[in-house]
Design goal:
The complex is a heterotrimer.
Chain A (H helix, E strand, L loop, with lengths): L6 H4 L3 H33 L2 E3 L5 E3 L3 H8 L1 H36 L7 H9 L6 H12 L5 H8 L16 H13 L1 H12 L3 H9 L4 H12 L1 H17 L2 H7 L12 H10 E2 L2 E2 L2 H34 L1
Antiparallel strand pairs in A: 1-2, 3-4
Helix pairs in contact in A: 2-15, 3-4, 4-8, 4-9, 4-12, 4-14, 6-13, 10-11, 12-15, 14-15
Chain B lengths: L2 H31 L4 H6 L13 H9 L2 H32 L5 H13 L6 H10 L6 H26 L2 H9 L4 H12 L1 H17 L2 H6 L8 H11 L4 H31 L5
Helix pairs in contact in B: 1-13, 3-13, 4-7, 4-10, 4-12, 5-7, 7-10, 8-9, 10-13, 12-13
Chain C lengths: L1 H22 L5 E6 L5 H15 L4 E6 L2 H14 L5 E4 L3 H8 L17 H4 L13 E13 H7 L7 H14 L3 E4 L6 H11 L1 H4 L2 H9 L7 H11 L14 H9 L3 E7 L2 H8 L4 E4 L11 E12 L6 H11 L2 H10 L4 E2 L10 H12 L1 E3 L14 H14 L4 H15 L5
Parallel strand pairs in C: 1-2, 1-3, 5-6, 8-10
Antiparallel strand pairs in C: 3-8, 4-6, 4-7, 4-8, 4-9
The chains are: A mainly alpha, B mainly alpha, C alpha/beta.
């Protein structure tokens, strides 16, 4: 960012610069610090406390984290949730992003009509509330309503139907795919935008050289949009490790069957706010939230140091 | 067009049509069945309503037993005000971060980007306590403040990219003419950011409109419920009454779809203008 | 951009004006927190108007949350000071915790509390029984509701024993017209509440077994508990196809559409079915295991109401709670919401025939509450959560009854030390 400086601002008197910064940055920084950072810091601080039944809190240092990672009672559901979250993320990376890239590739082909229509339609699910998406798919896959089984029967695959959302083996993948269905529009759009920004001359040159569309896509276009793909991946990572609403709205806070769909978001919710007779445990919940924070931070650092650097070098 | 080209074009369209069907199929199914009588919803879910199965009973019930219009206006107020503030404050901050050199600018940029990766939901209880001491509990203002804080980091990130693309000559020319910095921002730079609005919208407005969590804990009375919360409550209440359930789902879906279809051209123009790379 | 600012300011001003208008609630108004969003219509059309006949100046708003969000949302609002004046109380520890955090007031001073027996109040008292913090409203009874037309068609009668029960289920399965037994495991709690806690009390002798679990004389690995799990495991072949993904709402629809023969029920289902089912219904208590003579039913004290300690209008809140203790309220409630049975000493006439049948079991069988509720769900892992999980797994065939009992007892042993 500093390299885009223009000489005028560099020579600005200090007081004037301070005034300008206050004016431009003030509102954003104040609101953001008050309503985003402060609550977060308060949460982290809370994770070093424990509370007794009367609600009085006492400082315990890192004991909550010891419990969370060391006591099987807590560590088992925690690792289970983390593992499930990784599966959730993997499904997104392996399905959402390739499908998004493929759709963007098709849309960016020259002379495809009705592009606007397709784009609009495919992006539609992304606009909907997760609550609504979860509820609708729950109805569609419900063995009672029989839409999914009816549709499969119609094409002669009736025997393939199973109560996917209810089986330990398939519930998590099914939910991941519902999420993919909803959010595939975002990678599609971002990659589509990047594809459009590739200079025409490059592609024309390739065509003159006799390359087919498929090879142009894989050898020229795809490498050029790698930075976008990596950005999409990191957005997916952050979104997936913050996910909560879909699983909560379809499976509830217990994320059944047998915690097969429990991810960090639902684990945090259950710990923090409780469930039915389980009382909420704000201090342990805060510890879970803090660990989630560090997991996401770790992921971002890995991305920045391992992936981002290399891609920049290849990019242009 | 050669035969080969035509065949290829047809297969491309087939793929796109198939995926489009997959994308809207579930939505159409819900909307279509919301216009049918209960027995037809269960009896033949894939059939469109006809004269014997058409019914608006679900909609009647939604209008009768929930304040859906009030929820819409609440959601609209919250979303529009949040969006305006996110855009304004986000653009101002993005401008300062990209344009001025000052000590700690990198640290500040990092500080602001924390919000992209951490769900603000993790700080819910602290937020509640603050809202209470500020006397803002159960108000739409509380929601707006939280959503602005939540939307700012992403919008600063996106708008910074935009501002970097604005040719430097433009603002430098204005500076040479002695135009004050604040006017440069509002009169030269801000108008150029218009295409970014759609991009910011996708990343900030959609989550705000669809959010369930903060309305759930920050608003307690019916008069401050948003559409998502109102529909969620309604679904809980009438969960076995599928006429009402499907009608409520449709009513939550349709306005979004209508607004989206109207704005989709600008939205896509904004997205495809290369804001996020 | 300037226009945007103006628009934003305008919208903000409008929003503030609107909020100011809404925030200035009148004095003498009360807000009720509840998870009974199913009952919103009844509260608004029957209960609140009846109260207002006595106190026309007290405005009451019934503000329910969805059941699965209730505890979380309520706790957040209580901590944040935004909760309503009157709090609908879950039984036992959830509400006890609120009292211990000084978020609920004691209600011993409320006029009319003497209308409730000690058993009725037990779910909302401190462990020493000295302080009561919620006014009991109702209990719910578990059992089985059946489709009378289906029974008549196949010529079967209400089963008295589990053997007869299985014979009836088998007959429906052979016939194929109806789903023999309607219950799903997707939401998990059905398997625990309408399965395990429904047929179980006959095995562990109701309150006797419950007390023995608390005192440590019995363990969940004992034969009577394993036998209850074995019974629900045997239901799987008779459940609807895809029952693993069948939600509670799916179950309700399946039965009320006339597609099921027997429904593993809580009495609270009655009012839903009354609105939707077009056939005659009957109810029978949990059939008895071979070799038992006494029958037990799950008659669970489930719902009560207390005063938010931070309420600014406690005077009116007390008036409302006093009214809750009257037979007038009990009669309205019991008949507006058939299946919620009042807990007062004065008997209330229940008009609904299915509800009357179920409440009639109190005469022939011994009542007990769910054994996981009192004291035993205080620690981590939470027994009730665990029970939901293992019950669903047992029905799904993923866990043996023995392993289920062991998992529950192991979890309990981690934190619970019975008083010696």
């Amino acid at each position: 960012m500093p390299e885009s400086l223009s000489p005028v601002t560099a020579q600005m008197p200090r007081a004037k610069l301070a005034g300008l910064l206050l004016f431009f940055l003030g509102p954003a920084v104040v609101i953001y610090s008050l309503f985003s950072i402060y609550p977060l810091v308060a949460t982290m601080a809370l994770s070093t406390y424990t509370s007794d039944p009367s609600g009085a809190r006492s400082f315990v240092g890192l004991a909550n984290f010891q419990t969370l990672l060391g006591d099987a009672l807590w560590s088992k559901p925690f690792w289970n949730a983390l593992g499930n979250n990784l599966i959730f993320f993997t499904v997104h990376m392996c399905v959402q992003n390739p499908v998004g890239i493929a759709l963007a590739g098709l849309l960016s082909l020259p002379r495809v009509r009705l592009k606007g229509f397709y784009r609009t339609v495919m992006f539609l699910p992304t606009m909907l509330s997760v609550v609504i998406v979860g509820f609708s798919w729950n109805l569609i896959l419900s063995p009672l309503w029989g839409v999914a089984s009816g549709a499969l029967k119609a094409v002669g695959l009736g025997s393939l139907f199973a109560p996917w959302l209810g089986l330990e083996s398939s519930a998590l993948v099914t939910l991941s795919l519902i999420s993919v269905w909803q959010f595939v529009g975002i990678p599609m759009m971002l990659i589509y935008a990047a594809l459009l920004n590739i200079p025409e001359e490059l592609i024309d040159a390739a065509r003159v050289d006799g390359l087919g569309q498929l090879r142009i896509f894989f050898h020229i276009k795809l490498p050029l949009v790698l930075p976008t793909i990596s950005l999409v991946s990191v957005l997916t990572f952050v979104a997936n490790f913050n996910a909560f609403d879909l699983i909560y709205s379809v499976k509830g806070a217990l994320a059944g069957p047998n915690f097969a769909t429990d991810i960090l978001g639902t684990f945090f919710y259950r710990t923090f706010f409780g469930n039915q007779l389980q009382l909420g445990n704000p201090t342990m919940g805060a510890a879970v939230a803090t660990v989630m924070f560090f997991i996401i931070l770790l992921g971002l650092c890995l991305y920045l140091f391992l992936v981002q650097r290399r891609i920049r070098r290849y990019a242009f | 067009m050669t035969t080969e080209q035509r065949a290829r074009s047809i297969s491309v369209h087939l793929v796109l049509i198939a995926y489009s069907l997959l994308a809207v199929g579930p939505i159409l199914l819900v909307v279509m069945n919301s216009f049918k009588v209960r027995s037809a919803i269960f009896g033949s879910p894939l059939a469109p309503p006809d004269t014997s199965t058409f019914s608006l009973i679900g909609y009647e019930k939604v209008f009768r037993s929930s304040h859906i219009l009030l929820y819409y206006s609440n959601s609209l107020i919250v979303t529009l005000v949040s969006m305006a503030l996110v855009l304004l404050f986000g653009a101002m901050a993005a401008w300062a971060l990209t344009e001025y050199r000052f000590r700690g600018s990198t640290v500040l940029a990092l500080f602001l980007s924390i919000g992209i990766m951490v769900p603000i939901r993790l700080g819910s209880v602290a937020i509640l306590n603050m809202m209470r001491s500020a006397g803002l509990n159960d108000t739409l203002t509380a929601l707006v403040l939280v959503y602005v804080a939540q939307g700012l980091p992403m919008s600063i990130f996106i708008l910074s990219e935009f501002i970097q693309q604005i040719p430097k000559d433009l603002r430098d020319a204005a500076r040479c003419d002695g135009v004050p910095e604040i006017r440069i921002f509002f009169e030269v730079v801000a108008p150029l950011l218009r295409p970014a609005i759609a991009t910011v919208a996708v990343f900030t407005i959609v989550p705000i409109w669809n959010d369930l969590w903060f309305p759930l804990i920050l608003t307690s009375s019916d008069s401050t419920h948003t559409v998502t919360l109102g529909v969620q409550q309604f679904l809980g209440q009438y969960i076995t009454d599928w006429n009402s359930v499907l009608a409520a789902l449709s009513m939550a879906i349709l306005p979004v779809v209508v607004i989206y279809v109207i704005l989709s051209r600008q939205l896509i123009a904004g997205l495809t203008s290369g804001a996020v790379k | 951009m300037r226009r945007t600012i103006k628009a934003a300011l305008g919208a903000e001003a409008a929003a503030l004006a609107l909020l100011a208008g809404l925030a200035s609630a009148q004095a003498g108004s009360l807000k009720i927190e509840s998870w009974r969003n199913d009952d919103a219509d009844i509260w608004n059309s029957k209960i609140i108007p009846a109260f207002n006949k006595h106190y026309p100046d007290i405005k009451i708003e019934f503000a329910p949350s969805a059941p699965k969000e209730y505890n979380a949302a309520l706790n957040a609002r209580l901590d944040g000071g935004t909760a309503g004046d009157l709090i609908t109380c879950r039984p036992f520890d959830a509400s006890l915790a609120l009292y211990q955090k000084h978020q609920l007031d004691a209600v011993d001073g409320i006029k009319g509390m003497e209308n409730f027996s000690d058993v009725a109040k037990a779910a909302w008292q401190t462990d020493d029984g000295k302080t009561t913090f919620c006014v009991p409203i109702a209990s719910v009874i578990a059992g089985f509701i059946y489709n009378k037309e289906a029974f008549a068609k196949l010529g079967v009668t209400e089963p008295k024993t589990l053997d007869e029960f299985h014979a009836v289920l088998e007959k429906f399965k052979k016939d194929g017209t109806y789903v023999p037994l309607v219950m799903g495991t997707a939401d998990q709690w059905e398997a625990a509440t309408m399965g395990f806690q429904n047929v179980g009390p006959d095995y562990w002798k109701g309150e006797v077994g419950r007390a023995n679990l608390i005192s440590g004389k019995e363990k969940l690995t004992d034969p009577q508990y394993v036998a209850a799990f074995k019974e629900i495991a045997a239901w799987a072949p008779y459940l609807g196809s895809g029952f693993q993904a069948q939600t509670y709402a799916d179950s309700q629809n399946l039965f009320s559409l006339g597609k099921g023969a027997i429904y593993a029920a809580g009495s609270w289902d009655i009012s839903t079915f009354r609105g939707q089912a077009k056939f005659a219904m009957g109810a029978f208590p949990p059939p008895q295991p071979a070799g038992t003579t006494d029958c037990y039913i799950s008659d669970h004290t489930d719902i009560a109401m207390g005063i938010n300690a931070a309420s600014k209008n406690k005077e009116d809140a007390k008036k409302f709670l006093e009214w809750l203790t009257t037979p007038e309220f009990a009669t309205i409630y019991a008949n507006a919401l058939p299946g919620f049975f009042p807990l007062g000493k004065t008997p209330v006439k229940v008009e609904d025939d299915v509800a009357a049948t179920m409440v009639g079991w109190r005469q022939s069988c011994k009542s007990t509450i769910r054994n996981s509720y009192q004291i035993l769900s205080r620690g981590t892992p939470n027994l009730e959560n665990e029970l939901w999980n293992v019950s669903a797994q047992v029905v799904n065939g993923k866990l043996t009854p023995e392993a289920a009992g062991k998992q529950l007892q192991d979890g309990l042993d981690k934190w619970y030390k019975p008083a010696k």
